[in-house]
UniProtKB/TrEMBL annotation:
<dbReference type="InterPro" id="IPR050901">
    <property type="entry name" value="BP-dep_ABC_trans_perm"/>
</dbReference>
<feature type="domain" description="ABC transmembrane type-1">
    <location>
        <begin position="90"/>
        <end position="285"/>
    </location>
</feature>
<dbReference type="GO" id="GO:0055085">
    <property type="term" value="P:transmembrane transport"/>
</dbReference>
<dbReference type="GO" id="GO:0005886">
    <property type="term" value="C:plasma membrane"/>
</dbReference>
<feature type="transmembrane region" description="Helical">
    <location>
        <begin position="267"/>
        <end position="285"/>
    </location>
</feature>
<feature type="transmembrane region" description="Helical">
    <location>
        <begin position="28"/>
        <end position="49"/>
    </location>
</feature>
<dbReference type="InterPro" id="IPR035906">
    <property type="entry name" value="MetI-like_sf"/>
</dbReference>
<keyword id="KW-0762">Sugar transport</keyword>
<protein>
    <submittedName>
        <fullName>ABC transporter permease subunit</fullName>
    </submittedName>
</protein>
<feature type="transmembrane region" description="Helical">
    <location>
        <begin position="158"/>
        <end position="180"/>
    </location>
</feature>
<comment type="similarity">
    <text>Belongs to the binding-protein-dependent transport system permease family. MalFG subfamily.</text>
</comment>
<feature type="transmembrane region" description="Helical">
    <location>
        <begin position="89"/>
        <end position="115"/>
    </location>
</feature>
<keyword id="KW-0812">Transmembrane</keyword>
<keyword id="KW-0472">Membrane</keyword>
<keyword id="KW-1133">Transmembrane helix</keyword>
<dbReference type="Pfam" id="PF00528">
    <property type="entry name" value="BPD_transp_1"/>
</dbReference>
<dbReference type="InterPro" id="IPR000515">
    <property type="entry name" value="MetI-like"/>
</dbReference>
């Protein structure tokens, strides 16, 4: 086959596929840009991971921004797990998260269903109140924190993991109820009507129709409420004493404990172990979370 025949054949393939060289170039450029953004976003994670394996307390060597690979070891992870207060802080965080998630979900799910499927006196006012709490809460955060600290100290509740979990749940309920309510609005009413015609009771409809179809939305709410109790730092740092520190506060204490320097290798290992549960939960709930956030319509 001659060169001209080969070029003609390639041109025919491009024309048959409906893609011009410019389209192919745009696709390559977009792919390259996406990969570049991914590398930039993941670089800090890789750097922290490399630092957690290094020897000593430095984040970089004299020859570059990375520590010497020949010194990599797991000593920092051993120290975090066996010698630091990681285990105690982990138990405290799990207690706070359990209270936050259980209280939030027990209110969010029935609240979202009632706001989405029921007409009752004051429904619109409740909806407006939920919007108000989700929008202006951040603007009052400093004033709320000061008032909260004064109130809890006066009541003797400033070092309670249970109270902290209830506070996180109270903050998470308005937004997540609105989020799940918006998802439930996309479930066709005809599904409920068909179940009722088939003889299903009201609770049967909720259990067999609404909740199964709401799994993506519930997964999103579950992840958000988990993060509300797991990641929050400011309120926990304000209200808790060292014996009840959660992981986020313990991580801060580790970074500021050194008088002259920060133990960066131990800090990096601690930070990665702290972030690991969030990554695991999102990995297993990824499909639900993505479909729940899309709020796509349903066929029916």
């Amino acid at each position: 086959m001659t060169a001209s025949e080969s070029e003609t054949e390639v041109g025919d393939r491009d024309e048959s596929s409906g893609r011009s060289p410019l389209d192919i170039a745009k696709t390559v450029a977009a792919t390259g840009g996406a990969i570049g953004i991914l590398v930039v976003l993941m670089f800090p994670v890789y750097w922290i991971f490399a630092a957690s394996l290094s020897q000593g307390s430095g984040l970089m060597s004299s020859e570059g921004i990375f520590a010497d690979p020949s010194t990599y070891n797991l000593e920092a992870y051993r120290w975090v797990i066996l010698e630091s207060d990681f285990s105690e802080a982990l138990v405290n965080s799990l207690i706070v998260v359990f209270v936050t998630v259980s209280v939030s979900m027990s209110v969010v799910v029935p609240g979202a269903y009632a706001l989405s499927r029921r007409d009752f006196v004051g429904r619109e006012k409740v909806l407006y109140g939920y919007v108000l709490f989700t929008q202006v809460g951040a603007g009052l955060s400093v004033a709320t924190l000061v008032a909260l600290y004064a109130l809890f100290v006066n009541l003797g509740l400033s070092n309670s993991l249970l109270v902290l979990g209830l506070f996180y749940a109270a903050g998470a309920i308005p937004f997540n109820t609105w989020l799940l309510k918006t998802f439930m609005d996309n479930i066709p009413v005809s599904y409920e009507e068909a179940a009722i015609v088939d003889g299903a009771g009201r609770w049967d409809v909720i259990r067999e129709v609404i909740l199964p179809l709401s799994k993506p939305g519930i997964a999103v709410v579950l992840v958000f409420t988990f993060l509300a109790g797991w990641n929050e730092f400011i309120v926990a740092r304000t209200l808790l004493r060292p014996d009840n520190y959660t992981l986020s506060v313990e991580l801060y204490s580790l970074a500021t404990a050194g008088r002259y320097e920060t133990p960066w290798t131990e800090f990096s290992a601690f930070a990665l172990l702290f972030a690991l549960p969030v990554a695991i939960i999102y990995f297993f709930a990824q499909s639900y979370v993505e479909s729940g956030l899309s709020f796509g319509g349903m066929d029916g």
